[in-house]
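Good morning C.,

I know you're traveling, so I'll keep this short. The sequence:
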Amino acid sequence: MRKPCCDKQDTNRGAWSKQEDLKLIDYIRKHGEGCWRTLPQAAGLLRCGKSCRLRWINYLRPDLKRGNFAEDEEDLIVKLHALLGNRWSLIAGRLPGRTDNEVKNYWNSHLRRKLISMGIDPNNHRPNTINLPRPHHKNSQAVSSTAKLSAGLKTPTNDQPARSRVAIIVTKYRTVQVA
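The tokens, ready to paste straight into the viewer:
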């Protein structure tokens, strides 16, 4: 059985201080990323190795990109999610400077809701036809804007061969075709 990574009694928990961040940054600049289990003691930190690794990867790495996601990043996340599903590390690998955790959180808090509000099912990226609004009167010839939107989308049919099917993804700004 593997020994625990740290003694829970002698470690700091909670928010990181500026001094701890500086110690971790200085140590990794001098020695590089190595064994995360031995790093805290070698760097003079009273932290768990896992805590040091997560702090470095998600917050302190110099190549991290901070701030809002750009429109092209949003479009790429939607396209890749349609192809790869919830494989956040693979999706984040296509977005330089973004972590898998950051991409996952952005999907769940922003993009997923955008697709739902546009009438797109975020799981299969197809128009959600269940809750389309209906005309007010039975004899009315008016067509709602949502119905026009869904009618304008091209969706693959079952009589097409599986290889030639094309998924149509509607993003906030335009319709994107993914092979």
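Safe travels,
E.
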